[in-house]
Amino acid sequence: MAMRFKSIFLDPQTSQPTYNNKNEVLCEVLLEGKSTALAYVPAATIRSIGIILPKRIRPKPQVPDNSQDLQNRSDNKSPSPEIIEIIEEFASDNNTDYIWSPYRSTPDDHKATKKFIEILSNETYAEKLKDKITPKFKIWQQISNEMKNAGFPVAENEKEGGKKCDQKWRNLENKYALYNASSKNGQLARKKPPYYDMIYAIKNKNFKKSIRTLAEENQNRTSPINHQNCETVVLSNEHCPVNQQICETVVLSNEQSPVNQQNCETVVLSNEQSPVNQQNCETVILSDEQSPVNQQNCETVVLSSEQTNNTHCEPKTSSNSKDSALSPSELLQRITVHHEEILDMQKRHFEEMKANLKKQDDQREEMLRMFASLVEESKRKRKRSESD
């Protein structure tokens, strides 16, 4: 006999569901003739349709004070409703199977998770989830709608579906992070969690480009620039006439870069021919073959004419070799040398930047001392004027 669930019958005295010894709950159901009846329904069946049952409370047995009160209570008790047999076939009004149920798994859970990760790998959603301005709950609701359109309904409504998608991604991220942490700490090897490779691809999608790749891309650019009131300018063009004022840092790696800079703190040039006219500059680092420099009011000038000491030049060797005559050992040696050259370049670059930062800190300290002396001088003048 097919029946449909209507509601859970609550005990009038305790306002709690009624259980039998088979872990079945007394419910009100609709019969085929649209009449209602009471029947015991398995608790697992009720949970499978998304209904959360309260925690079962087992009442303690009470000993009556006397038999007379018990007799009066039984006489005044209203007749209990008729309870039909336990339902064998149970049908719900909402027979949609939602994925990722906490009570039972469905055959579509694995396919749905793969589809979920594929949607997250979309650049549109990846950028929005990393953005700190866009509200994230709207994004998860959109992802829930996409899952529903793909044939994997997540929840009954959009709001609950967004929460469920958010929690699902957090669970996947936690398993991914635990596996990585155990590998780094040298603990006992954990079993690789499901979908690890797909999550790894999302996490490392925006990988950093190598120094050589960036250098090759920068050689093909040409961008005449005029910056004012900027903090950092990085140029790597063959011909780049630059006029910059009130800049803090300028890094040029061009073959020919006539530069006119005023009120700059740091200028780093690595050009073959760089006629420079700078005024009120504090630090100038040139590594060119021919660099006629005209500087006024400059404190430090560091010249390094050898191109091998140029921090921004390319490595001498290349690890991308297609010579089939090279043996594996020779190829490995070439890759090792290439890697060492890159590390050496980065080290020199770091040392130069460290020296520049120290110079700037000293200059700031000097400015603070000058400012403090001006304040003290103004205070003394004010006191003298008041005393007069």
Automatic annotation (TrEMBL):
Q: Where is the composition biased (Polar residues)?
A: 64-79
Return the annotated region ranges for Disordered. 58-79, 306-327
**UniProt entry keywords in alphabetical sequence:** Coiled coil
Question: Which residues, by range, are in coiled-coil regions?
Answer: 343-370
Q: Where is the Myb/SANT-like DNA-binding domain?
A: 111-199
Claim: Nucleus is one of the keywords in the record: no
Q: Know the name of this protein?
A: Myb/SANT-like DNA-binding domain-containing protein
- Which species? Cinara cedri
